[in-house]
Design brief:
Elements (H helix, E strand, L loop, with lengths): L2 E6 L4 H10 L5 E7 L6 H14 L9 E3 L10 E4 L5 H7 L3 H8 L8 H18 L4 E4 L4 H15 L8 E2 L4 H14 L8 E2 L2 E3 L5 E3 L5 E2 L2
Parallel strand pairs: 1-2, 1-4, 2-3, 4-5, 5-6
Antiparallel strand pairs: 7-10, 8-9
Length: 216
């Protein structure tokens, strides 16, 4: 990941940890941690200071924590971690499981409506301030959100390149899968594990078992 990177939703668990990892990459020349509310800035900055002091090796770049999207201007990479998870949705709607059953939908699919609104709002900010960026869409359901954001970019930008909106897809399932094997076979380093998942992130992800290779 080269150049200037923006992490939108940096006050959340996944967004914060993404920024922490990016701080250690020498290729990252600028790092913006976008938070939803300016009230979160002091809290997030304090967490980053604590992290900086706890690691033995110094980070290469310290993030700018801000609620102002203009700080993201001319970013090369934009990572969107903003969105609602199932725990939050269940708190807002105690009848969520019943509603999902009545509609014949997976629980994860109930996140589409609220997270699509959030994703498209974030995509608009990216287009306004960093229209040439590579946009990485996270959140659930990642595949549906990524397709929707891709279509939004294509409708708003004349010279849009189709490969600029991407996501991690089933990568999370793949890592969890190989980790299960590492608990059973301690002699195998996860760096020497390769495999394949197909489908969509979540309940629709399917492992292709004969493509799993451990340590050669």
């Amino acid at each position: 990941i080269p150049g200037k990177v923006v992490v939108s939703g940096a006050s959340g668990h996944n967004g914060f940890n993404t920024v922490k990892m990016l701080m250690q990459l020498p290729e990252v020349t600028g790092l913006v941690a976008l938070v939803h509310d300016s009230k979160n800035i002091d809290m997030v900055e304090a967490r980053f200071r604590s992290y900086d002091e706890s690691v033995s090796r110094h980070s290469h770049v310290h993030p700018i924590v801000t609620a102002d999207p203009q700080a993201a201007e001319h970013a090369h990479v934009w990572i969107n971690w903003k969105g609602m998870n199932l725990a939050t949705l269940k708190r807002e709607n105690p009848n969520l499981e019943k509603d999902a059953a009545q509609k014949g939908r997976h629980l994860r699919d109930m996140l589409i409506e609220p997270n699509l609104i959030i994703a498209l709002q974030d995509a608009k900010m990216a287009i306004d301030f960093a229209p040439n960026c590579i946009y990485i869409q996270e959140g659930n359901p990642a595949d549906v959100l990524t397709r929707s954001v891709h279509n939004y970019f294509r409708s708003k930008l004349q010279n849009y390149s189709g490969g600029k909106v991407i996501s991690t897809g089933t990568l999370v399932e793949y890592y969890r899968w190989t980790k299960l094997f590492s608990h059973e076979f301690h002699e195998i380093n996860l760096d020497r594990a390769t495999g394949l998942y197909i489908g969509e992130h979540g309940e629709k992800a399917v492992p292709v078992k004969d493509r799993l290779i451990l340590g050669g």
